[in-house]
Amino acid sequence: MSRTSSTSAPGLSPQFCFNERVLRDFLRLSRGTIDDSITQNLNALVTPAQKGFDPSSTAVRQTDSRAQPIDPEACQSFKDNVLFPSWQTRSDVLNYCAGVATSPDPDDPDLILRETESARDRERVVDERLDPYSARFFPREARTESLANLIRNQRTVEEIIRARTWGLVTERCNDSAMTWEEALNSWRERRRH
Fold first, then answer.
1. pTM higher than 0.70 for the full model?
2. Of 3, 5, 26, 131, whose CB neighbour count within 10 A is largest?
């Protein structure tokens, strides 16, 4: 897989999705670049020296970042060109991989092994007095099931991260009372036209 930026989609293929480490790494990198560092990203939008540098500004540490307003155009540009594209890319990846997880998987490398284990277990005679643990059989999970579980978990994580990020964005940008879902959908609509 080639290196991609946090907002550009990786090459989507079933192999990408089934390589859960690569999928997790992509999501972690994208979230780390944009959402986990949202405060720094928003601070970078503040124009500190509108009237030239004032040496006295360094005499007191500024701890309340809300005291410095962010230009509304800079906020909108950040949302339209950085935040929403990153979220959309992650949504695209999760949606694609969810489709892979719910599709038949003819290339499943463990399919024959699972079928063999299942047939063997149906024929097994167990004397639980001799081996009390023998009744426990944990069939191997199909890789589509494993992927579906991962996608479900990652979607939950995504909801939490987006809500947290959006809370900071709306606070710092003095933004509307729109939810992150409404704002993202509005951005999607503007892009289509």
1. yes
2. 26
